[in-house]
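pasting for ref. prot 1 ->
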Amino acid sequence: MEFLIFLIVAAAVVAGVFWAKKHFRNEIDRAKRINRANKNK
């Protein structure tokens, strides 16, 4: 039973990561560019 719960939680996490990547890709790219610019200073 615990393994089944673990599988459901793992599937939810993976689905959440894919959803976030799809919806927040622009923000993530912008944040990466800002971080790179700050490091280069």
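and prot 2 ->
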Amino acid sequence: MSIRRLAALAVALLALTVLAGCGGGGVPPPQRARVDVAVLDDGGAEVELHAAGRLSSDAEVRALAGGIARDLFPEAAKVRVRTGKERGAPFARAEVGGAYRPGRRPSLRIDASGALRRLTAEGFEDTALRLRVPPVPATVRAGGDATGRRAWRLREGAPAPVLAVGMRPRPARWCGAMALPVLGALGVALAFFVRRRALAVPAAGTAVAAGVLAVVLAAGRQGANLGVAGLLGGTALKLASVAPLVAVPLALPAAMLLGTVLVRWLAGPRAAAGREARPRDSGVFW
């Protein structure tokens, strides 16, 4: 090996040694966490804490998540915390009862200052806060200004967001969504029990269109308007949310009927052409 190559190899080894030394004595990466806040349509809320690095036991994760939930919703009636696993890392979900009072124009205030102090005390230097509200007309204000943001950063020394959430449920939207399964049921009934094809085919098409619209318009989400308005809750609210989606299975037999009619229509000209091509009385045995 030449002297030039030996010198290059020595320089490379020296550089790797210096880089390794700098990496070993460098500043460790900041501890990060994520807090997901979901406002539910029955007056409750959920707070999920995904903590990376510092918390070593499920009990610590539960304790921190419960404290954060109480800081975010100090007037909550109850807080219940349980843990789970996500990609091998523990996370905690705090179920908050009575986070707000459902009604015609419910609102709630979420101050993240206490959560920031608690996270900072535990050594978390950078936390992502995400907010999810029910699928009803709603506005979110941060510091008094309306915003379309649903995510913020919680850092030591920076002001924590103070959020004002106002919701305006529209129960009439659920009533409109319920028109879809009604149309679907009517279309299926006419398609299968009326012998006139001129009426059965449009009826089946109406049932199929109702099923497609139920998916496209997210009809199953309109039940949230009933819950936020305080009209339904519990099992009744769950059933009401699922009810508009009945239009989807009703569309399946209607689609099969339309497919059968289409196949027969396409095969009809061929069959008619075959009958015309066959000789009526040629004296030849076929």
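Confidence is low (pLDDT under 50) at residues 18-29, 281-286.
The longest strand covers residues 78-86.
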